[in-house]
Design a protein that fits this description.
The two termini are about 35 Å apart. Helix 1 crosses helix 10, helix 2 crosses helix 8 and helix 9 crosses helix 10. The strands form 2 sheets. Strands 1-2 form a two-stranded antiparallel sheet. With about 300 residues, it is mainly α. It has a domain of about 210 residues. About 50% of the residues are buried.
Length: about 300
């Protein structure tokens, strides 16, 4: 792999590290199979792109995108907890609805930010660095900051109660823990982070597309599973940073597979490669636990 490809894989790995954190919150911490992430990711990009094209500040666009994502998560929680629809179906319904919502927001299936001011152009001008260096620095800074914030949140008293609901939702009410409020909070925060990932992706790569969220949940799950293959821990900080590491490893694996002339693979094989990587990661995780190859963090 060339240096450009390596840096590109790291950059995209940190962007999808945000998605991995979102998936960790829903699938692992509150034990909720939330598929609405596939809709929240492009929702964040759609809101961000539309606001930038409307003359808004790029950072304000990111903030509004996060609010939109939190709202999407709250809708999923409402369908599950108030309407009493199955958890999996609630996420699917929200994800399906967001496809049309995203087109409404953008007014078309896609938007380009070519020539517009973004956080990349701001960073490049302020610190006198190349756009490539600015993109990599932004991806790392935002992902690491969010990982720290989520780690602090999960380590707090409220975060502990949230994890308790995920561990045993039937027993937690006996300890005065409201399952409904934790589900609302967990899904809102999860989709907020997924929308943040979409907004950052939009500004780093200069476009938003209604179909850019397809397979996002698979990438997030792959990152979480890969992270658990190397670091096995329920400690908040270890779990969060393990899934970010998993996202970077995932992107490296995809890049190597696509650039390997020996395999004869093209970009059209991306979904096939993703499925194979997820399956291999699951098998490796199972094997590593049997052989005690994982690093255990207390």
């Amino acid at each position: 792999m060339s240096l450009y490809s390596i840096l590109g894989a790291i950059q995209l790995g940190f962007v999808y590290g945000l998605v991995a954190i979102a998936v960790l919150l829903s699938f692992r911490m509150i034990n909720f199979p939330d598929l609405s992430v596939d809709g929240s990711f492009p929702l964040g990009a759609a809101v961000c792109a539309t606001m930038i094209l409307g003359g808004w500040d790029p950072w304000m666009a990111i903030f509004c995108a996060m609010l939109a994502g939190a709202g999407a998560g709250a809708i999923t929680a409402f369908l599950s907890e108030n309407v009493k629809i199955l958890d999996l179906l609630s996420g699917i319904l929200t994800m399906t609805a967001l496809y049309s919502v995203n087109i409404r927001i953008m007014g078309r299936p896609n938007q380009s930010l070519l020539g517009k001011e973004t956080i990349v152009t701001q960073a490049a001008e302020r610190f006198s660095i190349s756009p490539m260096a600015a993109k990599l620095s932004i991806a790392i800074a935002i992902c690491v900051t969010m990982a720290l914030l989520v780690g602090i949140f999960l380590a707090s008293r409220f975060g502990l109660s949230l994890r308790a609901v995920g561990t045993n939702a039937n027993v937690s009410p006996a300890y005065g823990i409201s399952k409904k409020s934790r589900i609302y909070t967990g899904l809102s925060v999860s989709n907020c982070i997924a929308a943040l990932a979409g907004a950052v992706f939009c500004q780093l790569y200069g476009f938003a597309d209604v179909s850019m969220g397809v397979g996002t949940i698979v990438i997030g799950l792959a990152a979480v599973i890969l992270g658990e293959a190397f670091v096995r821990s329920w400690a908040p900080f270890a779990a969060v940073f393990a899934c970010v590491l998993g996202a970077i490893i995932y992107r490296f694996t995809i890049s190597i597979a696509l650039e390997g002339d020996v395999f004869g693979l093209t970009t059209s094989d991306l979904n096939l490669i993703s499925s194979i990587v997820v399956t291999a990661a699951f098998l490796f995780t199972k094997y590593s636990r049997q052989k005690n190859l994982t690093v255990k963090v207390k």
